[in-house]
Amino acid sequence: MLRKIRLTLAVIIFTMTTLLFLDFTGVTHCWLGWIAKMQFLPALLAVNVGVVSVLLVLTLLFGRVYCSVICPLGVFQDVVSWIAGKRKKNRFSYSPAVSWLRYGMLGIFIIAFLAGIGSLVALLDPYGAYGRIASNLFAPLYQWGNNLLAYWAERADSYVFYSVDMWIKSVATFGVALVTFVVLFLLAWRNGRTYCNTICPVGTVLGFVARFSFLRPVIDVEKCNGCGLCARNCKAACIDSKNHSIDYSRCVTCLDCIDKCKRGALTYVPRKRKTESEREADRPEENTRRNFLTFTGLLATSVLKAQSGVNADGGLADIADKLTPDRMTPIVPPGALSLRNFTGHCTACQLCVSVCSNQVLRPSTDLKKFMQPEMSYERGYCRPECTKCSEVCPTGAIQLITKADKSATQIGHAVWIKENCVVNTDEVNCGNCERHCPTKAIQMVAKDPNDPKSLKVPVIDTELCIGCGACEYYCPSRPLSAIYVEGHERHRTV
Protein backbone atom coordinates (compact mmCIF):
# COMPACT_ATOMS: atom_id res chain seq x y z
CA MET A 1 0.00 0.00 0.00
CA LEU A 2 2.77 2.45 0.95
CA ARG A 3 4.63 1.64 -2.25
CA LYS A 4 1.52 2.32 -4.33
CA ILE A 5 1.06 5.68 -2.63
CA ARG A 6 4.69 6.57 -3.33
CA LEU A 7 4.41 5.53 -6.97
CA THR A 8 1.20 7.51 -7.45
CA LEU A 9 2.69 10.67 -5.96
CA ALA A 10 5.91 10.22 -7.94
CA VAL A 11 4.05 9.85 -11.25
CA ILE A 12 1.87 12.89 -10.56
CA ILE A 13 4.76 15.16 -9.53
CA PHE A 14 6.99 13.90 -12.35
CA THR A 15 4.29 14.54 -14.94
CA MET A 16 3.56 18.03 -13.63
CA THR A 17 7.27 18.91 -13.50
CA THR A 18 7.78 17.72 -17.07
CA LEU A 19 4.81 19.76 -18.26
CA LEU A 20 6.49 22.88 -16.88
CA PHE A 21 9.29 22.43 -19.41
CA LEU A 22 7.04 21.36 -22.29
CA ASP A 23 4.31 23.99 -22.07
CA PHE A 24 4.89 26.97 -24.38
CA THR A 25 1.60 28.73 -23.62
CA GLY A 26 2.38 29.74 -20.04
CA VAL A 27 -0.88 28.28 -18.75
CA THR A 28 0.76 25.39 -16.90
CA HIS A 29 3.07 27.70 -15.00
CA CYS A 30 0.16 29.62 -13.52
CA TRP A 31 -1.01 26.45 -11.81
CA LEU A 32 2.11 24.36 -11.35
CA GLY A 33 4.94 26.86 -10.99
CA TRP A 34 5.25 26.01 -7.30
CA ILE A 35 6.60 22.56 -8.16
CA ALA A 36 9.90 23.99 -9.39
CA LYS A 37 10.29 25.92 -6.16
CA MET A 38 10.05 22.74 -4.05
CA GLN A 39 13.25 21.27 -5.52
CA PHE A 40 16.07 21.05 -2.99
CA LEU A 41 19.00 22.87 -4.61
CA PRO A 42 16.90 25.68 -6.15
CA ALA A 43 15.28 26.24 -2.76
CA LEU A 44 18.71 26.26 -1.10
CA LEU A 45 20.09 28.79 -3.58
CA ALA A 46 17.01 30.97 -3.13
CA VAL A 47 17.50 30.70 0.66
CA ASN A 48 13.94 29.44 0.84
CA VAL A 49 14.15 28.34 4.46
CA GLY A 50 10.59 27.02 4.50
CA VAL A 51 11.03 24.59 1.60
CA VAL A 52 14.49 23.43 2.69
CA SER A 53 13.22 22.84 6.23
CA VAL A 54 10.22 20.85 5.00
CA LEU A 55 12.42 18.66 2.79
CA LEU A 56 14.86 18.01 5.63
CA VAL A 57 12.03 17.19 8.03
CA LEU A 58 10.52 14.82 5.46
CA THR A 59 13.90 13.12 5.15
CA LEU A 60 14.27 12.85 8.92
CA LEU A 61 10.82 11.31 9.16
CA PHE A 62 10.60 9.06 6.11
CA GLY A 63 14.09 8.79 4.61
CA ARG A 64 15.01 9.94 1.11
CA VAL A 65 11.44 10.34 -0.15
CA TYR A 66 12.57 13.48 -1.96
CA CYS A 67 14.73 11.31 -4.21
CA SER A 68 11.98 8.79 -4.94
CA VAL A 69 8.96 11.11 -5.17
CA ILE A 70 9.88 14.76 -5.79
CA CYS A 71 13.17 14.80 -7.71
CA PRO A 72 12.33 14.50 -11.45
CA LEU A 73 15.75 13.08 -12.32
CA GLY A 74 15.35 10.36 -9.71
CA VAL A 75 11.90 9.39 -10.96
CA PHE A 76 13.19 9.45 -14.54
CA GLN A 77 15.84 6.90 -13.57
CA ASP A 78 13.17 4.79 -11.88
CA VAL A 79 11.14 4.78 -15.09
CA VAL A 80 14.15 3.62 -17.10
CA SER A 81 14.99 1.00 -14.47
CA TRP A 82 11.39 -0.23 -14.46
CA ILE A 83 11.44 -0.68 -18.24
CA ALA A 84 14.74 -2.55 -18.01
CA GLY A 85 13.25 -4.74 -15.28
CA LYS A 86 10.63 -5.98 -17.70
CA ARG A 87 13.37 -7.74 -19.63
CA LYS A 88 15.43 -9.01 -16.74
CA LYS A 89 14.10 -9.39 -13.22
CA ASN A 90 16.05 -9.67 -9.97
CA ARG A 91 19.06 -8.05 -11.65
CA PHE A 92 20.57 -5.94 -8.86
CA SER A 93 23.07 -6.88 -6.16
CA TYR A 94 24.52 -5.31 -3.05
CA SER A 95 27.63 -3.17 -3.43
CA PRO A 96 29.52 -1.24 -0.74
CA ALA A 97 29.19 2.53 -0.63
CA VAL A 98 31.79 4.46 -2.63
CA SER A 99 32.14 7.15 0.02
CA TRP A 100 35.26 8.76 -1.43
CA LEU A 101 33.41 9.45 -4.68
CA ARG A 102 30.22 10.65 -3.02
CA TYR A 103 31.89 13.11 -0.69
CA GLY A 104 34.48 13.98 -3.30
CA MET A 105 31.76 15.06 -5.73
CA LEU A 106 30.08 17.04 -2.97
CA GLY A 107 33.40 18.75 -2.27
CA ILE A 108 33.87 19.57 -5.96
CA PHE A 109 30.35 20.97 -6.05
CA ILE A 110 30.98 23.24 -3.07
CA ILE A 111 34.34 24.41 -4.41
CA ALA A 112 32.76 25.16 -7.79
CA PHE A 113 30.02 27.15 -6.10
CA LEU A 114 32.47 29.15 -3.99
CA ALA A 115 34.66 29.79 -7.04
CA GLY A 116 31.69 30.96 -9.08
CA ILE A 117 31.99 28.17 -11.66
CA GLY A 118 28.29 28.17 -12.42
CA SER A 119 28.57 25.73 -15.31
CA LEU A 120 29.91 22.96 -13.06
CA VAL A 121 27.30 23.67 -10.38
CA ALA A 122 24.58 23.49 -13.04
CA LEU A 123 26.01 20.27 -14.42
CA LEU A 124 25.79 18.51 -11.04
CA ASP A 125 22.35 19.80 -10.04
CA PRO A 126 19.83 16.96 -10.58
CA TYR A 127 16.86 19.26 -11.14
CA GLY A 128 18.82 21.37 -13.62
CA ALA A 129 20.00 18.24 -15.43
CA TYR A 130 16.46 17.01 -15.89
CA GLY A 131 15.33 20.48 -16.95
CA ARG A 132 17.90 20.51 -19.74
CA ILE A 133 16.84 17.04 -20.86
CA ALA A 134 13.16 17.99 -20.89
CA SER A 135 13.57 21.36 -22.59
CA ASN A 136 16.13 20.22 -25.18
CA LEU A 137 15.03 16.66 -25.96
CA PHE A 138 11.40 16.24 -24.89
CA ALA A 139 10.09 19.73 -25.72
CA PRO A 140 10.90 19.55 -29.47
CA LEU A 141 8.93 16.29 -29.71
CA TYR A 142 6.05 17.91 -27.85
CA GLN A 143 6.15 20.93 -30.16
CA TRP A 144 6.34 18.73 -33.23
CA GLY A 145 3.22 16.90 -32.07
CA ASN A 146 1.50 20.23 -31.44
CA ASN A 147 2.42 21.50 -34.91
CA LEU A 148 1.11 18.30 -36.47
CA LEU A 149 -2.20 18.76 -34.67
CA ALA A 150 -2.26 22.41 -35.73
CA TYR A 151 -1.76 21.36 -39.36
CA TRP A 152 -4.65 18.91 -39.30
CA ALA A 153 -6.85 21.30 -37.32
CA GLU A 154 -6.28 24.04 -39.89
CA ARG A 155 -7.31 21.69 -42.68
CA ALA A 156 -10.54 21.15 -40.76
CA ASP A 157 -11.04 24.94 -40.38
CA SER A 158 -10.29 24.76 -36.68
CA TYR A 159 -7.80 26.89 -34.79
CA VAL A 160 -7.75 25.05 -31.49
CA PHE A 161 -4.01 24.51 -32.01
CA TYR A 162 -1.42 26.88 -33.42
CA SER A 163 2.04 26.23 -34.79
CA VAL A 164 5.15 27.25 -32.88
CA ASP A 165 8.71 27.76 -34.09
CA MET A 166 11.06 24.86 -33.46
CA TRP A 167 14.76 25.66 -33.21
CA ILE A 168 17.81 24.65 -31.22
CA LYS A 169 18.60 27.55 -28.91
CA SER A 170 22.11 26.28 -28.18
CA VAL A 171 23.86 23.40 -29.90
CA ALA A 172 26.29 23.07 -26.98
CA THR A 173 23.52 22.84 -24.38
CA PHE A 174 21.62 20.40 -26.58
CA GLY A 175 24.76 18.27 -26.72
CA VAL A 176 25.17 18.35 -22.94
CA ALA A 177 21.52 17.40 -22.49
CA LEU A 178 21.88 14.53 -24.95
CA VAL A 179 25.04 13.19 -23.30
CA THR A 180 23.43 13.51 -19.85
CA PHE A 181 20.37 11.64 -21.08
CA VAL A 182 22.42 8.81 -22.59
CA VAL A 183 24.68 8.42 -19.54
CA LEU A 184 21.79 8.45 -17.07
CA PHE A 185 19.76 6.10 -19.25
CA LEU A 186 22.59 3.56 -19.42
CA LEU A 187 23.36 3.82 -15.70
CA ALA A 188 19.70 3.44 -14.74
CA TRP A 189 19.19 0.62 -17.24
CA ARG A 190 22.09 -1.39 -15.86
CA ASN A 191 22.41 -0.36 -12.23
CA GLY A 192 19.35 1.61 -11.11
CA ARG A 193 20.27 4.54 -8.86
CA THR A 194 24.05 4.57 -9.35
CA TYR A 195 24.09 8.27 -10.23
CA CYS A 196 22.08 9.23 -7.15
CA ASN A 197 24.43 7.44 -4.77
CA THR A 198 27.78 8.34 -6.30
CA ILE A 199 27.60 11.68 -8.11
CA CYS A 200 24.50 13.63 -7.08
CA PRO A 201 25.37 16.21 -4.37
CA VAL A 202 21.74 16.45 -3.27
CA GLY A 203 21.62 12.68 -2.80
CA THR A 204 24.76 12.84 -0.66
CA VAL A 205 23.38 15.59 1.57
CA LEU A 206 20.01 13.94 2.03
CA GLY A 207 21.70 10.56 2.41
CA PHE A 208 23.52 11.79 5.48
CA VAL A 209 20.28 13.09 6.98
CA ALA A 210 18.48 9.84 6.10
CA ARG A 211 20.85 7.91 8.38
CA PHE A 212 18.79 9.29 11.26
CA SER A 213 15.32 8.92 9.72
CA PHE A 214 12.52 7.94 12.07
CA LEU A 215 10.84 5.49 9.67
CA ARG A 216 12.94 3.04 7.68
CA PRO A 217 12.85 -0.42 6.11
CA VAL A 218 13.99 -2.96 8.70
CA ILE A 219 14.92 -6.62 8.22
CA ASP A 220 13.42 -9.05 10.72
CA VAL A 221 16.24 -11.55 11.25
CA GLU A 222 13.84 -14.13 12.65
CA LYS A 223 11.72 -14.16 9.50
CA CYS A 224 14.48 -13.67 6.92
CA ASN A 225 15.71 -16.84 5.24
CA GLY A 226 18.57 -15.11 3.40
CA CYS A 227 17.11 -15.65 -0.07
CA GLY A 228 18.48 -12.27 -1.21
CA LEU A 229 15.36 -11.38 -3.18
CA CYS A 230 15.25 -7.94 -1.54
CA ALA A 231 18.87 -7.20 -2.52
CA ARG A 232 18.29 -8.35 -6.09
CA ASN A 233 15.42 -5.86 -6.39
CA CYS A 234 17.10 -2.94 -4.64
CA LYS A 235 17.89 -0.31 -7.28
CA ALA A 236 20.08 1.55 -4.77
CA ALA A 237 22.21 -1.58 -4.12
CA CYS A 238 22.08 -0.80 -0.41
CA ILE A 239 20.71 -4.06 1.07
CA ASP A 240 23.27 -6.55 2.37
CA SER A 241 21.03 -9.59 2.76
CA LYS A 242 23.86 -11.78 4.05
CA ASN A 243 24.45 -9.54 7.05
CA HIS A 244 20.82 -8.41 7.30
CA SER A 245 21.79 -4.74 7.05
CA ILE A 246 20.66 -1.73 5.02
CA ASP A 247 22.72 1.35 4.17
CA TYR A 248 20.12 4.03 4.91
CA SER A 249 22.28 6.79 3.45
CA ARG A 250 21.78 5.19 0.03
CA CYS A 251 18.23 3.90 0.48
CA VAL A 252 15.82 6.08 -1.53
CA THR A 253 12.74 4.74 0.28
CA CYS A 254 11.27 3.21 -2.86
CA LEU A 255 9.88 0.35 -0.71
CA ASP A 256 10.35 -2.15 -3.56
CA CYS A 257 12.12 -4.53 -1.18
CA ILE A 258 9.10 -4.70 1.13
CA ASP A 259 6.85 -5.46 -1.81
CA LYS A 260 9.13 -8.25 -3.05
CA CYS A 261 9.76 -10.03 0.26
CA LYS A 262 7.56 -13.13 0.33
CA ARG A 263 8.10 -13.86 4.02
CA GLY A 264 7.21 -10.42 5.35
CA ALA A 265 10.69 -10.05 6.80
CA LEU A 266 10.95 -6.42 5.67
CA THR A 267 8.80 -3.75 7.25
CA TYR A 268 8.74 0.05 7.22
CA VAL A 269 8.81 0.88 10.92
CA PRO A 270 10.29 3.38 13.40
CA ARG A 271 13.98 2.87 14.05
CA LYS A 272 15.12 1.37 17.31
CA ARG A 273 17.80 2.65 19.62
CA LYS A 274 21.19 1.12 18.86
CA THR A 275 22.89 -1.18 21.29
CA GLU A 276 26.38 -0.46 22.57
CA SER A 277 27.90 -2.99 20.16
CA GLU A 278 26.11 -1.37 17.21
CA ARG A 279 27.36 2.05 18.23
CA GLU A 280 30.90 0.67 18.40
CA ALA A 281 30.53 -0.69 14.88
CA ASP A 282 29.40 2.73 13.61
CA ARG A 283 32.34 4.67 15.03
CA PRO A 284 34.55 4.27 11.93
CA GLU A 285 31.98 6.40 10.11
CA GLU A 286 32.51 9.39 12.40
CA ASN A 287 35.31 10.86 10.30
CA THR A 288 33.12 10.69 7.23
CA ARG A 289 30.36 12.46 9.11
CA ARG A 290 32.72 15.18 10.27
CA ASN A 291 33.83 15.72 6.69
CA PHE A 292 30.22 15.91 5.61
CA LEU A 293 29.39 18.50 8.24
CA THR A 294 32.39 20.54 7.15
CA PHE A 295 31.20 20.44 3.55
CA THR A 296 27.67 21.33 4.59
CA GLY A 297 28.90 24.28 6.64
CA LEU A 298 30.87 25.57 3.67
CA LEU A 299 27.84 25.20 1.44
CA ALA A 300 25.55 27.05 3.84
CA THR A 301 28.11 29.85 4.24
CA SER A 302 28.59 30.18 0.51
CA VAL A 303 24.85 30.29 -0.13
CA LEU A 304 24.36 33.07 2.41
CA LYS A 305 27.32 34.95 0.96
CA ALA A 306 25.94 34.66 -2.53
CA GLN A 307 22.55 35.84 -1.35
CA SER A 308 23.99 39.04 0.10
CA GLY A 309 26.09 39.85 -2.54
CA VAL A 310 5.58 36.64 -31.18
CA ASN A 311 7.78 37.17 -34.28
CA ALA A 312 7.46 40.12 -36.60
CA ASP A 313 10.02 41.82 -38.78
CA GLY A 314 8.15 44.97 -39.76
CA GLY A 315 8.10 43.77 -43.35
CA LEU A 316 11.70 44.87 -43.79
CA ALA A 317 13.90 41.83 -43.30
CA ASP A 318 14.08 38.20 -42.27
CA ILE A 319 15.28 38.15 -38.67
CA ALA A 320 16.64 34.62 -39.03
CA ASP A 321 19.62 36.02 -40.94
CA LYS A 322 20.81 38.22 -38.10
CA LEU A 323 24.02 37.54 -36.23
CA THR A 324 24.46 37.99 -32.50
CA PRO A 325 26.47 41.11 -31.65
CA ASP A 326 29.61 40.79 -29.58
CA ARG A 327 28.44 42.25 -26.28
CA MET A 328 31.03 43.22 -23.70
CA THR A 329 28.55 42.45 -20.91
CA PRO A 330 25.85 39.76 -21.24
CA ILE A 331 22.23 40.78 -20.75
CA VAL A 332 20.30 39.05 -17.98
CA PRO A 333 16.55 39.37 -17.40
CA PRO A 334 14.82 42.02 -15.30
CA GLY A 335 14.56 40.69 -11.77
CA ALA A 336 18.08 39.26 -11.87
CA LEU A 337 19.32 42.38 -10.02
CA SER A 338 22.86 41.91 -11.29
CA LEU A 339 24.99 39.63 -13.41
CA ARG A 340 26.71 38.36 -10.27
CA ASN A 341 23.45 37.49 -8.52
CA PHE A 342 22.17 35.73 -11.62
CA THR A 343 25.24 33.58 -12.26
CA GLY A 344 25.56 32.81 -8.54
CA HIS A 345 22.05 31.40 -8.25
CA CYS A 346 21.22 29.96 -11.67
CA THR A 347 21.38 26.16 -12.07
CA ALA A 348 20.74 26.29 -15.83
CA CYS A 349 17.54 24.27 -15.55
CA GLN A 350 16.24 26.06 -18.69
CA LEU A 351 12.77 26.63 -17.23
CA CYS A 352 12.92 30.35 -18.02
CA VAL A 353 14.11 29.53 -21.54
CA SER A 354 11.16 27.20 -21.99
CA VAL A 355 8.58 29.80 -20.97
CA CYS A 356 10.07 32.74 -22.89
CA SER A 357 7.40 33.30 -25.53
CA ASN A 358 9.47 36.03 -27.18
CA GLN A 359 12.42 33.66 -27.74
CA VAL A 360 14.82 36.10 -26.14
CA LEU A 361 16.41 33.77 -23.60
CA ARG A 362 18.89 31.14 -24.71
CA PRO A 363 21.72 29.17 -23.05
CA SER A 364 25.12 30.80 -22.97
CA THR A 365 28.12 29.21 -24.67
CA ASP A 366 30.60 31.10 -22.48
CA LEU A 367 32.54 28.55 -20.41
CA LYS A 368 32.16 30.48 -17.15
CA LYS A 369 28.40 30.80 -17.62
CA PHE A 370 27.95 27.71 -19.76
CA MET A 371 24.28 26.74 -20.19
CA GLN A 372 23.07 29.61 -18.00
CA PRO A 373 20.52 31.71 -19.92
CA GLU A 374 21.34 35.07 -21.40
CA MET A 375 19.33 37.44 -23.55
CA SER A 376 19.69 38.11 -27.26
CA TYR A 377 17.36 39.84 -29.66
CA GLU A 378 17.64 38.14 -33.06
CA ARG A 379 14.23 36.45 -32.78
CA GLY A 380 12.31 38.83 -30.55
CA TYR A 381 12.63 41.41 -27.82
CA CYS A 382 11.86 41.50 -24.11
CA ARG A 383 8.31 42.84 -23.94
CA PRO A 384 7.69 45.08 -20.92
CA GLU A 385 4.38 43.36 -20.18
CA CYS A 386 5.90 39.87 -19.90
CA THR A 387 7.23 38.65 -16.54
CA LYS A 388 7.07 34.88 -17.09
CA CYS A 389 10.74 34.16 -16.40
CA SER A 390 10.59 35.85 -13.00
CA GLU A 391 7.43 33.92 -12.13
CA VAL A 392 8.93 30.49 -12.76
CA CYS A 393 12.54 30.84 -11.57
CA PRO A 394 12.90 28.59 -8.50
CA THR A 395 16.39 29.64 -7.38
CA GLY A 396 16.15 33.40 -6.95
CA ALA A 397 18.39 34.00 -9.97
CA ILE A 398 15.44 35.95 -11.40
CA GLN A 399 13.38 37.41 -8.61
CA LEU A 400 9.67 38.06 -8.99
CA ILE A 401 9.06 41.43 -10.61
CA THR A 402 5.89 43.34 -11.47
CA LYS A 403 5.16 44.67 -14.95
CA ALA A 404 5.46 48.22 -13.67
CA ASP A 405 8.85 47.56 -12.08
CA LYS A 406 10.07 45.75 -15.17
CA SER A 407 9.20 48.74 -17.36
CA ALA A 408 11.39 50.88 -15.12
CA THR A 409 14.33 48.46 -14.81
CA GLN A 410 17.37 49.15 -16.95
CA ILE A 411 19.11 45.89 -17.84
CA GLY A 412 21.25 47.53 -20.52
CA HIS A 413 21.38 50.42 -22.94
CA ALA A 414 21.24 50.75 -26.71
CA VAL A 415 24.35 51.56 -28.75
CA TRP A 416 24.17 52.91 -32.31
CA ILE A 417 26.73 51.77 -34.90
CA LYS A 418 26.46 54.38 -37.62
CA GLU A 419 28.53 52.36 -40.11
CA ASN A 420 25.83 49.66 -40.14
CA CYS A 421 22.80 51.94 -40.32
CA VAL A 422 20.81 51.84 -43.57
CA VAL A 423 20.62 55.63 -43.44
CA ASN A 424 24.35 55.65 -44.18
CA THR A 425 24.73 52.44 -46.18
CA ASP A 426 21.64 52.79 -48.41
CA GLU A 427 20.92 56.51 -48.10
CA VAL A 428 17.30 55.91 -47.08
CA ASN A 429 15.22 56.97 -44.11
CA CYS A 430 14.24 54.23 -41.68
CA GLY A 431 13.23 55.13 -38.12
CA ASN A 432 12.30 51.57 -37.14
CA CYS A 433 14.15 51.86 -33.85
CA GLU A 434 12.30 55.03 -32.86
CA ARG A 435 8.88 53.67 -33.82
CA HIS A 436 9.24 50.54 -31.70
CA CYS A 437 10.99 51.94 -28.63
CA PRO A 438 8.51 51.55 -25.72
CA THR A 439 10.21 54.18 -23.54
CA LYS A 440 10.75 56.82 -26.25
CA ALA A 441 14.47 56.71 -25.54
CA ILE A 442 15.26 57.06 -29.27
CA GLN A 443 14.63 60.19 -31.29
CA MET A 444 15.33 60.70 -34.99
CA VAL A 445 17.24 63.87 -35.77
CA ALA A 446 18.59 65.36 -38.98
CA LYS A 447 21.85 63.82 -40.10
CA ASP A 448 23.00 67.26 -41.19
CA PRO A 449 22.22 69.79 -38.43
CA ASN A 450 22.24 72.56 -41.02
CA ASP A 451 19.70 70.82 -43.25
CA PRO A 452 16.40 69.94 -41.51
CA LYS A 453 15.32 67.96 -44.60
CA SER A 454 18.34 65.67 -44.55
CA LEU A 455 18.08 61.99 -43.67
CA LYS A 456 17.27 61.18 -40.05
CA VAL A 457 19.56 59.24 -37.73
CA PRO A 458 18.80 57.94 -34.23
CA VAL A 459 19.91 59.60 -31.02
CA ILE A 460 19.68 57.51 -27.85
CA ASP A 461 18.81 58.81 -24.41
CA THR A 462 20.60 56.24 -22.23
CA GLU A 463 18.78 57.53 -19.16
CA LEU A 464 15.43 56.41 -20.59
CA CYS A 465 16.58 53.23 -22.35
CA ILE A 466 15.78 50.03 -20.43
CA GLY A 467 17.56 47.61 -22.78
CA CYS A 468 14.45 45.72 -23.92
CA GLY A 469 15.98 45.15 -27.37
CA ALA A 470 13.03 46.28 -29.50
CA CYS A 471 15.32 48.59 -31.46
CA GLU A 472 17.85 45.83 -32.08
CA TYR A 473 15.18 43.32 -33.09
CA TYR A 474 13.41 45.59 -35.57
CA CYS A 475 16.58 47.05 -37.08
CA PRO A 476 16.70 46.00 -40.77
CA SER A 477 20.50 46.09 -41.05
CA ARG A 478 22.20 42.79 -41.90
CA PRO A 479 24.09 40.75 -40.84
CA LEU A 480 24.49 42.84 -37.68
CA SER A 481 21.98 45.34 -36.39
CA ALA A 482 22.99 48.97 -36.55
CA ILE A 483 21.71 49.36 -33.02
CA TYR A 484 22.25 46.80 -30.29
CA VAL A 485 21.94 46.51 -26.52
CA GLU A 486 24.95 46.39 -24.24
CA GLY A 487 24.25 44.70 -20.90
CA HIS A 488 24.77 46.15 -17.44
CA GLU A 489 26.62 44.45 -14.60
CA ARG A 490 24.02 45.81 -12.18
CA HIS A 491 20.45 46.70 -13.02
CA ARG A 492 19.05 50.06 -12.01
CA THR A 493 15.73 51.86 -11.96
CA VAL A 494 15.10 54.60 -14.51
Please, could you describe this protein's structure?
It is built from 22 helices and ten strands. It is 46% helix and 10% strand. Strand 2 (239-240) and strand 3 form a beta hairpin. The chain has 494 residues and is mainly α. Residues 306-320 have low confidence and may be disordered. It has a two-stranded antiparallel sheet. The chain has a two-stranded antiparallel ribbon with strand order 2-3. A two-stranded antiparallel sheet has the order 5-6. It folds into two domains: 1-271, no CATH class; 409-493, 2-Layer Sandwich (Alpha-Beta Plaits), CATH 3.30.70.20. It has helices spanning 2-22, 27-32, 40-45, 49-62, 65-70, 72-87, 99-114, 118-124, 126-155, 171-191, 201-210, 229-232, 256-260, 276-282, 286-308, 339-345, 351-355, 388-392, 403-407, 422-425, 432-436, 470-474; strands spanning 215-219, 239-240, 245-246, 266-270, 361-363, 373-375, 409-416, 442-446, 456-460, 483-493.
